[in-house]
Amino acid sequence: VQLQASGGGLVQAGGSLRLSCKASGINFSLHTMDWYRQPPGKQREWVASITSGHDTNLVDAVKGRFTVSRDNVRRMAYLQLDRLKPEDTAVYYCKTRRSGADFWGQGTLVTVSS
């Protein structure tokens, strides 16, 4: 299983970014996709999930600003980041789980300037 995250960058507060996660080596449509982030000097934290049935859940801190989605045909998961705040600065990771094992993408850095 391989996950490749992309789309990070430097953006001003209030701006937007769209993160992408491309999956291979997995029957993508059957698996929940998760997004995590790790702010500088802090522990990694869960941000959002989307199930195989497209049910979504997000941490309270990003509700109303972030949107998680997926395209099973393209084997892609997305995290739309809107109305970004400096505290959203972090390395963002996508993750999935198969047969009891977690698989992580390499992370993509989002930096939000004030």
List the main descriptive attributes of the protein structure presented here:
114 residues; mainly beta
Secondary structure: number of strands: 11
Structural class: mainly beta
Helix-strand sequence:
EEEEEEEEEEE
What portion of the residues fall into strands of 2 or more residues? over 45%
> If helices are DSSP runs of H or I spanning 4 or more residues, what is the number of helices?
0
Rg measurement, Å: 13 Å
CA-based shape: globular
What's the N-to-C terminus distance? 37 Å
Overall pLDDT: 97
Classify the helix fraction into a percent range: under 10%
Flag low-confidence runs. none
The biggest beta sheet is recorded as: 7 strands, mixed
Account of the 3D structure:
The chain has no helices and eleven strands. The chain is mainly beta and 114 residues long. The strands form two sheets. Strands 2, 4, 5, 6, 9, 10 and 11 form a seven-stranded mixed beta sheet that branches. Strands 1-3-8-7 form a four-stranded antiparallel beta sheet, with no helix packed on it. The mean pLDDT is 97.
